[in-house]
Amino acid sequence: MLIEKMKERFGADILAAESAHGEESITIDRERAPEILRALRDEAGFEFNLLADLSAVDWLDRKPRFEVAYQLNSIPRGHRIRVKVGVDGADPWAHSAIGIWKAADWLERECFDMFGIVFKGHPDLRRILMYDSFKGHPLRKDYPYQKRQPVVPETDPVSQPLRPSR
Amino acid sequence: MALPARWKEKIIASDPADEIMELQMGPSHPAAHGTIKFNLKLDGERIADCDVEVGYLHRGFEKMCEQGTWTQCFPYTDRLNYASPCINNVGFALAVERLLGVETPERCKYVRLIMSEVSRIADHLTCLGMGAGEVGAQTVMFYMIEAREFLYDLIEAVAGARVTVSWCRVGGVTNDFPPDFAARLGASFKSLDQVLSDCDKLLSRNRVFIDRMAGIGILPQEDAISYGLTGPLLRATGIKYDLRKAQPYLVYDRFDFDVPTGERGDNYDRFNVRFQEILQSRLIIEQAMASIPAGPVSITDPKIVLPPKQQVYESIEGLMNHFKLIMEGIHVPPGEVYQAVEAANGELGFYVVSDGSGRPYRVRVRPPCFFGMGALNKMLIGRMIPDIITTFGMINMIGGECDR
């Protein structure tokens, strides 16, 4: 029923909608995502004030390759929705939601770290779980799970102090 | 707290090295329980900027889950929040069960609920004990860790392990309660009550403790929501939001309990909310023990649950089902589910995606303390170095869960 309300409100901006296992999810265009997400947060009837989670799924041979999933939760209304945005594999980027929910800051950093999706408009997009010299993005399906990376060389902390990344 | 103008000027000033001292605290600091690094910019002893670095305990949980069968994920989930592993087990099992469309027997729901609440108490005792210990209340720490030990004994009696329980399965749990569980629970609660009453006397009117906790690490309500905080951190700001009430799972809607809240969203409120939650969890367990139905604790669908050993050894069907479940895993139909449970630190979410093979296509965990750590910078700017310890302690960051 949330889906009907959204179709009514956003019309053709909703590319696909699905209701399964007691959950509802919609797919929207990545160009229009910030606008729609902001409306979902602010407008009466939706009021998704909590960004519960943001992550991605790598569908290696589908087009678009990545699917960024926003799990939205509304404290006043008690309902949830999953908003999905397709992200092209050749040029993986999505708009940042940091201006809408501050939680997006670290979540987008993690998504960038793990999948290499660049969030445009994020002021401080750097790795969060992996170290700076790590090559590649571990949660991509074409990253072998047994791959080893070289040990980070030890430096003398006095003559060459390890600088924090920010 | 807003940054005073004189610090802003200093940070912007052309040569900040003269005024602002950089200090890297951690990753292994004796006063911070957890492997974490704070890159601090200090103005005297005040924090002008704090960049929190997490990831030191990253073990590739999500990647490893994609390599095995669905059942093989359970040991990994134990190692998320290792202070309350039963809740992680339950959350993952519920997610996969929803994807499969199976319903567990009544007794299983009760057993899972009771074990979740025992784990919640153990988790809160860890957080409070360590938090108090870090500000000098060592006695409280020893008392609470001792009480936690009684609860771990209880968990061991059911699951066979104290921490790495791996006790849930898709479709049920491995072990029912032992026959003397109610008596053991009574004994554990008796010592728990004693500890709680002692700690209450030691802390609630203790001037040193209150001075270190009250008014420190404040995060206003709107920021708490924007940063995605849930659980005790959100409730400390005065929002009565608990998934056990708001979106009930298992059988939480059958029990009568209260959701404690704070007022100001400071460390003292966070401490109190957790303390009160222990009492509420205790109430839930007592109600659940009084009304727990008899029956099986697991479904018997041979495509999901391993057959009894007797059947494996004596019948060809049993042997085949066992072989196929071990080698191929449970065939979960394609689809995706986001299952959230109220863990001790807040909303623990499992976003599981299946492509129809016997292996998970994607398992994503929404770790509650990751969000608290994301907001830590905001809580600390303008405060003193010692406030890092209490604020960090009350977020209750668990490395295994935050870094996965």
Strand content of chain A: 25-35%
Poorly predicted sequence stretches spanning 5 or more consecutive residues of chain B: none
Largest sheet, spatial ordering of strands of chain A:
1-2-5-4-3
How large is the count of helical segments of chain B? Answer: 17
User: What about the largest sheet of chain B?
Assistant: 3 strands, antiparallel
Unreliable sequence segments of chain A? none
Biggest β-sheet of chain A: count, sense, barrel?
Answer: 5 strands, mixed
Distance between the termini of chain A: 45 Å
Mean pLDDT of chain A: 86
Work out the largest interface and the residue count of each chain: A-B, 39 and 48 residues
What string, H for helix and E for strand, traces the elements of chain B in order? HEEEHHHHHEEHHHHHHHHEEEHHH
Secondary structure tally: strands of chain B: 8
Portion of residues in beta strands of chain B equals 5-15%
Which secondary-structure class do the elements of chain A indicate? alpha/beta
Number of strands of chain A: 7
Described by the principal axes of the CA atoms, the overall outline of chain A is elongated
Compact description:
The complex is a heterodimer of chains A (166) and B (404). Chain A has helices spanning 2-10, 33-42, 104-115; strands at residues 14-20, 23-28, 50-58, 66-73, 80-87, 93-95, 118-120.
Describe what this molecule looks like in 3D.
The complex is a heterodimer of chains A (166) and B (404). Chain A is α/β, with parallel strands linked by helices and 166 residues long. Chain A contains three helices and seven strands; from the N terminus they run αββαββββαβ. Chain A has helices at 2-10, 33-42, 104-115; strands spanning 14-20, 23-28, 50-58, 66-73, 80-87, 93-95, 118-120. In chain A, a hairpin with a 7-residue loop joins strand 3 and strand 4 (66-73). The N and C termini of chain A lie far apart (45 Å). In chain A, 37% of the residues are buried. By secondary structure, chain B is an alpha+beta fold. Chain B has helices spanning 5-12, 61-65, 74-78, 85-100, 106-134, 138-159, 181-203, 207-213, 221-226, 231-235, 243-246, 267-291, 309-314, 316-327, 368-380, 385-395, 399-403; strands at residues 21-25, 37-43, 46-53, 168-169, 172-173, 335-343, 346-354, 360-366. Chain B has a three-stranded antiparallel beta sheet. In chain B, strands 6-7-8 form a three-stranded antiparallel beta sheet. The two termini of chain B are 31 Å apart. In chain B, 50% of the residues lie in helices and 12% in strands. Chain B is globular, with a radius of gyration of 23 Å. In chain B, 52% of the residues are buried. The A-B interface holds A 20-23, 25, 49-53, 55, 57-58, 69, 71, 73, 75, 78, 80, 82, 101-103, 105-107, 114, 127-131, 138-139, 143, 145, 164-166 and B 22, 24, 37, 39, 51, 53-55, 58, 60, 62-64, 66-67, 98-99, 101, 223, 225-228, 230, 239, 241, 246-247, 335-338, 340, 347, 349, 351, 353, 361-362, 364, 366, 370-371, 373-375, 403-404.
